[in-house]
Amino acid sequence: MEFSIKPQTVTEYLHEAPILVITGFKRSGKSILAEALYERLPDFGYMTVLQNAKSWIHVQHPLAAGKARTSTKIDPEIVSIINRFMGKDGKKCWIVDDAEVLLAHATEEMLMNLGQKIREQQFYLILIRNRFILEDSGWLRERELLISATFNKIEMKPFRHEEATVTASGFFTGLEKQANSEWLVNMSGGIPGLMEDLHLYAKSQWRKGVIGYKFNKLIIRKREELLLSKPIRQNLIEALNKRVLPPYFFLSAQAKAELGIFLHTGLISMDYFERHPPFNGIFWALVSRQRSGIRMNTLSYEDMGLNLEILIREAGLIESVCGVCNVDASDEGQLGRSLANILICQNRYPQIVNTIDFFLLEFFGKIGLIKLLKSRKVKTSISESADILVKQVLELSRQ
After folding, report:
1. The domain spanning residue 151 has which CATH number?
2. 3-state secondary structure 132-191
3. Are 23 and 34 in contact (CB under 8 A)?
4. Is 341 found in the same domain as 201?
5. What tens digit of pLDDT does each residue of 351-390 get?
6. Are strands 19-24 and 124-130 parallel, antiparallel or unpaired?
7. Are residues 151 and 165 in the same domain?
8. What is the pLDDT of residues 308-357, one digit of tens each?
9. Alpha-carbon gap, residue 180 to 169, rounded angstroms
Protein backbone atom coordinates (compact mmCIF):
# COMPACT_ATOMS: atom_id res chain seq x y z
CA MET A 1 0.00 0.00 0.00
CA GLU A 2 1.32 3.44 -0.93
CA PHE A 3 0.98 6.59 1.19
CA SER A 4 1.17 10.30 0.51
CA ILE A 5 3.93 10.29 3.18
CA LYS A 6 6.83 8.59 1.40
CA PRO A 7 9.94 7.15 3.10
CA GLN A 8 12.10 9.60 1.19
CA THR A 9 10.02 12.49 2.55
CA VAL A 10 10.50 11.12 6.05
CA THR A 11 14.29 10.94 5.61
CA GLU A 12 14.33 14.56 4.43
CA TYR A 13 12.51 15.64 7.59
CA LEU A 14 14.87 13.59 9.75
CA HIS A 15 17.81 15.29 8.05
CA GLU A 16 16.40 18.65 9.22
CA ALA A 17 15.64 17.52 12.80
CA PRO A 18 16.15 14.17 14.56
CA ILE A 19 12.55 13.95 15.84
CA LEU A 20 9.54 13.62 13.54
CA VAL A 21 5.94 13.48 14.75
CA ILE A 22 3.36 12.00 12.36
CA THR A 23 -0.26 12.56 13.35
CA GLY A 24 -3.38 11.01 11.88
CA PHE A 25 -7.06 10.59 12.56
CA LYS A 26 -8.81 7.35 13.51
CA ARG A 27 -8.59 4.69 10.81
CA SER A 28 -6.15 6.75 8.74
CA GLY A 29 -3.65 3.90 8.36
CA LYS A 30 -1.10 4.97 10.97
CA SER A 31 -0.07 1.43 11.92
CA ILE A 32 0.30 0.38 8.28
CA LEU A 33 2.50 3.43 7.70
CA ALA A 34 4.61 2.50 10.75
CA GLU A 35 5.17 -0.99 9.34
CA ALA A 36 6.02 0.45 5.92
CA LEU A 37 8.62 2.82 7.38
CA TYR A 38 10.08 -0.01 9.47
CA GLU A 39 10.55 -2.10 6.34
CA ARG A 40 11.65 0.62 3.91
CA LEU A 41 13.82 3.04 5.88
CA PRO A 42 16.67 0.47 5.88
CA ASP A 43 16.82 1.09 2.10
CA PHE A 44 17.93 4.62 3.02
CA GLY A 45 20.63 3.41 5.40
CA TYR A 46 18.69 3.39 8.68
CA MET A 47 18.65 0.62 11.26
CA THR A 48 15.05 0.53 12.47
CA VAL A 49 13.22 -0.48 15.62
CA LEU A 50 9.41 -0.56 15.56
CA GLN A 51 7.44 -0.33 18.76
CA ASN A 52 3.72 -0.06 19.41
CA ALA A 53 1.15 -0.49 22.14
CA LYS A 54 0.69 -4.22 21.51
CA SER A 55 4.25 -5.38 21.05
CA TRP A 56 7.15 -3.85 22.86
CA ILE A 57 9.68 -4.77 21.25
CA HIS A 58 9.69 -5.75 17.54
CA VAL A 59 13.23 -5.25 16.22
CA GLN A 60 14.69 -5.32 12.72
CA HIS A 61 18.10 -6.86 12.00
CA PRO A 62 20.86 -6.13 12.96
CA LEU A 63 19.34 -5.06 16.27
CA ALA A 64 17.19 -8.14 16.84
CA ALA A 65 17.41 -9.59 20.34
CA GLY A 66 14.68 -12.07 21.07
CA LYS A 67 10.92 -12.07 21.35
CA ALA A 68 8.69 -9.12 22.04
CA ARG A 69 7.08 -8.65 25.41
CA THR A 70 4.26 -6.47 26.67
CA SER A 71 4.55 -4.11 29.62
CA THR A 72 2.93 -0.91 30.80
CA LYS A 73 6.04 -0.13 32.85
CA ILE A 74 7.90 1.14 29.83
CA ASP A 75 10.93 2.94 31.28
CA PRO A 76 12.96 -0.31 31.16
CA GLU A 77 11.88 -0.76 27.53
CA ILE A 78 13.13 2.72 26.64
CA VAL A 79 16.45 2.01 28.36
CA SER A 80 16.64 -1.24 26.41
CA ILE A 81 16.19 0.60 23.10
CA ILE A 82 18.80 3.21 24.01
CA ASN A 83 21.25 0.47 25.00
CA ARG A 84 20.66 -1.37 21.72
CA PHE A 85 21.64 1.74 19.79
CA MET A 86 24.76 2.40 21.86
CA GLY A 87 27.94 1.58 19.99
CA LYS A 88 26.15 0.80 16.71
CA ASP A 89 27.51 2.46 13.60
CA GLY A 90 25.34 4.23 11.06
CA LYS A 91 21.94 5.86 11.35
CA LYS A 92 19.50 4.38 13.86
CA CYS A 93 15.79 5.17 13.93
CA TRP A 94 13.22 4.27 16.57
CA ILE A 95 9.68 4.22 15.14
CA VAL A 96 7.03 4.43 17.86
CA ASP A 97 3.49 3.68 16.72
CA ASP A 98 0.69 4.40 19.22
CA ALA A 99 3.06 7.00 20.65
CA GLU A 100 0.42 8.04 23.18
CA VAL A 101 1.48 4.98 25.21
CA LEU A 102 5.06 6.22 25.38
CA LEU A 103 3.97 9.74 26.30
CA ALA A 104 1.47 8.59 28.93
CA HIS A 105 3.44 5.83 30.70
CA ALA A 106 7.08 6.91 30.64
CA THR A 107 8.27 8.96 33.59
CA GLU A 108 9.10 12.62 33.08
CA GLU A 109 12.76 11.91 33.80
CA MET A 110 12.83 9.18 31.16
CA LEU A 111 11.21 11.39 28.52
CA MET A 112 13.78 14.12 29.18
CA ASN A 113 16.60 11.56 29.10
CA LEU A 114 15.26 10.25 25.79
CA GLY A 115 15.37 13.75 24.36
CA GLN A 116 18.93 14.22 25.59
CA LYS A 117 20.10 11.03 23.88
CA ILE A 118 18.50 12.14 20.62
CA ARG A 119 20.11 15.58 20.86
CA GLU A 120 23.43 13.82 21.31
CA GLN A 121 22.72 12.33 17.85
CA GLN A 122 22.69 8.76 19.10
CA PHE A 123 19.55 7.99 17.09
CA TYR A 124 16.44 9.39 15.38
CA LEU A 125 12.87 9.19 16.69
CA ILE A 126 9.57 8.97 14.78
CA LEU A 127 6.42 9.31 16.90
CA ILE A 128 3.23 8.17 15.14
CA ARG A 129 0.05 8.98 17.04
CA ASN A 130 -3.55 10.12 16.85
CA ARG A 131 -4.08 13.80 16.41
CA PHE A 132 -4.80 15.33 19.81
CA ILE A 133 -8.25 16.89 20.13
CA LEU A 134 -6.43 20.09 21.08
CA GLU A 135 -3.19 19.58 19.20
CA ASP A 136 -1.31 22.54 20.67
CA SER A 137 -2.20 22.12 24.34
CA GLY A 138 -3.05 19.56 27.00
CA TRP A 139 -1.26 17.03 29.19
CA LEU A 140 0.01 14.75 26.40
CA ARG A 141 1.29 17.76 24.47
CA GLU A 142 3.21 18.91 27.57
CA ARG A 143 4.78 15.47 27.93
CA GLU A 144 5.75 15.45 24.25
CA LEU A 145 7.58 18.73 24.85
CA LEU A 146 9.62 17.04 27.58
CA ILE A 147 11.37 15.11 24.81
CA SER A 148 12.01 18.19 22.71
CA ALA A 149 10.59 21.67 22.28
CA THR A 150 11.34 21.58 18.56
CA PHE A 151 10.55 18.90 16.02
CA ASN A 152 9.02 18.52 12.58
CA LYS A 153 5.44 17.34 12.26
CA ILE A 154 3.48 15.82 9.38
CA GLU A 155 -0.28 15.30 9.29
CA MET A 156 -1.52 12.17 7.53
CA LYS A 157 -4.14 12.88 4.89
CA PRO A 158 -6.55 10.65 2.98
CA PHE A 159 -5.24 8.90 -0.12
CA ARG A 160 -5.10 10.85 -3.34
CA HIS A 161 -7.56 9.63 -5.95
CA GLU A 162 -5.05 7.44 -7.80
CA GLU A 163 -3.81 5.77 -4.60
CA ALA A 164 -7.37 5.34 -3.32
CA THR A 165 -8.45 3.70 -6.59
CA VAL A 166 -5.65 1.14 -6.41
CA THR A 167 -6.49 0.34 -2.78
CA ALA A 168 -10.25 0.16 -3.41
CA SER A 169 -9.88 -2.19 -6.38
CA GLY A 170 -8.28 -4.73 -4.06
CA PHE A 171 -11.61 -5.28 -2.30
CA PHE A 172 -13.51 -6.40 -5.41
CA THR A 173 -13.54 -8.91 -8.25
CA GLY A 174 -15.79 -9.58 -11.22
CA LEU A 175 -17.57 -7.40 -13.75
CA GLU A 176 -18.58 -4.70 -11.25
CA LYS A 177 -15.07 -4.27 -9.87
CA GLN A 178 -14.51 -0.85 -11.47
CA ALA A 179 -17.94 0.51 -10.54
CA ASN A 180 -17.68 -0.74 -6.96
CA SER A 181 -14.16 0.68 -6.64
CA GLU A 182 -15.29 4.11 -7.85
CA TRP A 183 -18.19 4.04 -5.39
CA LEU A 184 -15.87 3.13 -2.52
CA VAL A 185 -13.33 5.84 -3.39
CA ASN A 186 -15.99 8.54 -3.57
CA MET A 187 -17.82 7.33 -0.47
CA SER A 188 -14.72 6.93 1.74
CA GLY A 189 -12.87 10.02 0.59
CA GLY A 190 -9.71 7.91 0.38
CA ILE A 191 -9.57 7.09 4.11
CA PRO A 192 -8.00 3.59 4.38
CA GLY A 193 -9.95 2.41 7.44
CA LEU A 194 -13.23 3.78 6.10
CA MET A 195 -12.66 1.86 2.86
CA GLU A 196 -12.41 -1.32 4.88
CA ASP A 197 -15.59 -0.46 6.80
CA LEU A 198 -17.67 0.47 3.73
CA HIS A 199 -16.63 -1.97 1.01
CA LEU A 200 -19.22 -4.55 2.09
CA TYR A 201 -21.98 -2.07 1.29
CA ALA A 202 -20.84 -1.37 -2.27
CA LYS A 203 -22.81 -4.12 -4.01
CA SER A 204 -26.06 -4.26 -2.07
CA GLN A 205 -26.60 -0.98 -0.25
CA TRP A 206 -26.16 1.68 -2.92
CA ARG A 207 -28.18 1.51 -6.10
CA LYS A 208 -29.09 4.38 -8.42
CA GLY A 209 -28.72 7.00 -5.73
CA VAL A 210 -30.94 5.19 -3.23
CA ILE A 211 -29.55 4.55 0.26
CA GLY A 212 -30.30 1.02 1.43
CA TYR A 213 -31.69 0.19 4.86
CA LYS A 214 -28.47 -1.25 6.36
CA PHE A 215 -26.35 1.55 4.97
CA ASN A 216 -28.74 4.13 6.37
CA LYS A 217 -28.52 2.46 9.80
CA LEU A 218 -24.73 2.84 9.63
CA ILE A 219 -25.09 6.55 8.80
CA ILE A 220 -27.49 7.07 11.72
CA ARG A 221 -25.21 5.16 14.10
CA LYS A 222 -22.21 7.30 13.17
CA ARG A 223 -24.30 10.43 13.59
CA GLU A 224 -25.29 9.31 17.08
CA GLU A 225 -21.73 8.33 18.00
CA LEU A 226 -20.55 11.84 17.09
CA LEU A 227 -23.35 13.44 19.16
CA LEU A 228 -24.28 15.70 16.27
CA SER A 229 -27.47 16.71 18.09
CA LYS A 230 -25.31 18.62 20.60
CA PRO A 231 -26.06 22.33 19.93
CA ILE A 232 -22.49 23.52 19.36
CA ARG A 233 -21.78 20.57 17.08
CA GLN A 234 -24.99 21.30 15.19
CA ASN A 235 -23.73 24.85 14.68
CA LEU A 236 -20.31 23.66 13.49
CA ILE A 237 -21.84 21.18 11.05
CA GLU A 238 -24.27 23.78 9.72
CA ALA A 239 -21.43 26.27 9.24
CA LEU A 240 -19.39 23.59 7.44
CA ASN A 241 -22.31 22.68 5.20
CA LYS A 242 -22.90 26.33 4.35
CA ARG A 243 -19.13 26.86 3.88
CA VAL A 244 -19.05 29.75 6.34
CA LEU A 245 -16.83 28.23 9.04
CA PRO A 246 -13.62 30.30 9.23
CA PRO A 247 -10.17 28.67 9.53
CA TYR A 248 -9.25 26.97 12.80
CA PHE A 249 -7.25 29.95 14.11
CA PHE A 250 -10.38 32.13 14.34
CA LEU A 251 -12.56 29.69 16.28
CA SER A 252 -13.41 29.98 19.95
CA ALA A 253 -11.65 27.68 22.40
CA GLN A 254 -14.83 25.63 22.86
CA ALA A 255 -15.32 25.28 19.10
CA LYS A 256 -11.70 24.17 18.64
CA ALA A 257 -12.24 21.40 21.18
CA GLU A 258 -15.44 20.26 19.46
CA LEU A 259 -13.91 20.51 15.99
CA GLY A 260 -11.00 18.48 17.32
CA ILE A 261 -13.44 15.56 17.66
CA PHE A 262 -14.33 15.87 13.96
CA LEU A 263 -10.65 16.03 13.02
CA HIS A 264 -9.87 13.05 15.24
CA THR A 265 -12.53 10.88 13.59
CA GLY A 266 -11.58 11.92 10.04
CA LEU A 267 -14.89 13.63 9.28
CA ILE A 268 -12.91 16.67 8.09
CA SER A 269 -9.27 17.62 7.67
CA MET A 270 -7.50 20.81 8.75
CA ASP A 271 -7.85 22.18 5.21
CA TYR A 272 -11.67 22.14 5.47
CA PHE A 273 -11.82 25.87 4.74
CA GLU A 274 -10.26 25.37 1.31
CA ARG A 275 -12.24 22.27 0.33
CA HIS A 276 -15.63 21.97 -1.33
CA PRO A 277 -17.33 20.05 0.07
CA PRO A 278 -15.38 20.24 3.35
CA PHE A 279 -15.98 16.61 4.37
CA ASN A 280 -13.67 13.65 3.73
CA GLY A 281 -15.86 11.76 1.28
CA ILE A 282 -19.57 11.34 0.60
CA PHE A 283 -20.10 9.08 3.61
CA TRP A 284 -19.12 11.76 6.12
CA ALA A 285 -21.17 14.29 4.13
CA LEU A 286 -24.21 11.99 4.53
CA VAL A 287 -23.52 11.63 8.25
CA SER A 288 -23.35 15.44 8.50
CA ARG A 289 -26.39 16.14 6.33
CA GLN A 290 -28.93 18.51 7.89
CA ARG A 291 -32.31 19.84 6.92
CA SER A 292 -32.06 23.03 4.91
CA GLY A 293 -31.83 25.94 7.32
CA ILE A 294 -32.75 29.56 6.86
CA ARG A 295 -31.04 31.02 3.82
CA MET A 296 -28.48 33.60 4.88
CA ASN A 297 -27.75 36.83 3.06
CA THR A 298 -23.97 37.02 3.35
CA LEU A 299 -23.16 39.59 0.66
CA SER A 300 -22.60 42.53 3.02
CA TYR A 301 -20.31 40.42 5.21
CA GLU A 302 -18.36 39.23 2.16
CA ASP A 303 -17.84 42.84 1.10
CA MET A 304 -16.65 43.79 4.59
CA GLY A 305 -14.23 40.87 4.72
CA LEU A 306 -12.76 41.71 1.33
CA ASN A 307 -12.44 45.40 2.25
CA LEU A 308 -10.65 44.47 5.48
CA GLU A 309 -8.16 42.36 3.51
CA ILE A 310 -7.54 45.25 1.10
CA LEU A 311 -7.00 47.55 4.07
CA ILE A 312 -4.51 45.12 5.62
CA ARG A 313 -2.66 44.75 2.31
CA GLU A 314 -2.47 48.53 1.84
CA ALA A 315 -0.96 48.85 5.32
CA GLY A 316 1.73 46.30 4.39
CA LEU A 317 0.62 43.87 7.08
CA ILE A 318 -0.74 41.01 4.96
CA GLU A 319 2.26 38.68 5.34
CA SER A 320 2.38 38.94 9.13
CA VAL A 321 -1.39 38.53 9.51
CA CYS A 322 -1.63 35.52 7.19
CA GLY A 323 1.45 33.92 8.71
CA VAL A 324 -0.09 33.90 12.18
CA CYS A 325 -3.55 32.85 10.96
CA ASN A 326 -2.22 30.08 8.68
CA VAL A 327 -3.87 31.65 5.64
CA ASP A 328 -2.23 31.83 2.21
CA ALA A 329 -1.18 35.46 1.66
CA SER A 330 -0.60 34.83 -2.06
CA ASP A 331 -4.23 33.77 -2.53
CA GLU A 332 -5.93 37.12 -2.82
CA GLY A 333 -9.32 36.99 -1.16
CA GLN A 334 -8.62 34.06 1.19
CA LEU A 335 -8.08 36.27 4.23
CA GLY A 336 -11.12 38.31 3.19
CA ARG A 337 -13.27 35.16 3.06
CA SER A 338 -11.95 34.15 6.47
CA LEU A 339 -12.85 37.51 7.99
CA ALA A 340 -16.24 37.50 6.27
CA ASN A 341 -16.95 34.10 7.80
CA ILE A 342 -16.12 35.46 11.25
CA LEU A 343 -18.71 38.17 10.71
CA ILE A 344 -21.29 35.66 9.48
CA CYS A 345 -20.70 33.25 12.35
CA GLN A 346 -20.64 35.86 15.11
CA ASN A 347 -24.07 36.90 13.87
CA ARG A 348 -25.47 33.40 13.32
CA TYR A 349 -23.41 31.11 15.61
CA PRO A 350 -21.70 33.39 18.19
CA GLN A 351 -20.60 30.43 20.32
CA ILE A 352 -18.14 29.09 17.74
CA VAL A 353 -15.96 32.10 16.86
CA ASN A 354 -14.01 34.87 18.48
CA THR A 355 -15.53 38.16 17.33
CA ILE A 356 -14.01 40.32 14.64
CA ASP A 357 -13.50 43.04 17.28
CA PHE A 358 -11.48 40.57 19.37
CA PHE A 359 -9.36 39.58 16.37
CA LEU A 360 -8.60 43.17 15.32
CA LEU A 361 -7.73 44.29 18.84
CA GLU A 362 -5.75 41.21 19.85
CA PHE A 363 -3.79 41.02 16.63
CA PHE A 364 -3.12 44.66 15.79
CA GLY A 365 -3.34 46.46 19.11
CA LYS A 366 -3.84 50.22 19.18
CA ILE A 367 -0.66 50.93 17.17
CA GLY A 368 -1.63 48.51 14.40
CA LEU A 369 -5.19 49.83 14.23
CA ILE A 370 -3.88 53.38 13.91
CA LYS A 371 -1.62 52.21 11.09
CA LEU A 372 -4.62 50.70 9.28
CA LEU A 373 -6.59 53.92 9.66
CA LYS A 374 -3.72 56.17 8.57
CA SER A 375 -3.28 54.09 5.38
CA ARG A 376 -6.68 55.57 4.41
CA LYS A 377 -5.80 59.00 5.77
CA VAL A 378 -8.26 58.75 8.65
CA LYS A 379 -7.37 61.20 11.41
CA THR A 380 -6.88 59.50 14.74
CA SER A 381 -4.52 59.45 17.71
CA ILE A 382 -3.09 57.13 20.35
CA SER A 383 -5.37 58.80 22.90
CA GLU A 384 -8.43 57.20 21.31
CA SER A 385 -9.78 54.12 23.08
CA ALA A 386 -9.19 50.73 21.49
CA ASP A 387 -12.95 50.20 21.07
CA ILE A 388 -13.26 53.43 19.10
CA LEU A 389 -10.35 52.47 16.85
CA VAL A 390 -11.91 49.06 16.13
CA LYS A 391 -15.23 50.72 15.26
CA GLN A 392 -13.44 53.11 12.89
CA VAL A 393 -11.71 50.23 11.11
CA LEU A 394 -14.97 48.32 10.74
CA GLU A 395 -16.67 51.46 9.47
CA LEU A 396 -13.99 51.73 6.79
CA SER A 397 -14.69 48.14 5.76
CA ARG A 398 -18.35 49.02 5.12
CA GLN A 399 -17.52 51.78 2.65
Report:
1. 3.40.50.300
2. CCCCCCCHHHHHHHHHCCCCEEEECCCCCHHHHHHHHHCCCCCCCHHHHHHHHHHHHCCC
3. no
4. no
5. 999 999 999 998 898 888 998 888 888 888 888 888 999 9
6. parallel
7. no
8. 999 999 888 899 899 888 899 999 999 999 999 999 999 999 999 999 99
9. 8
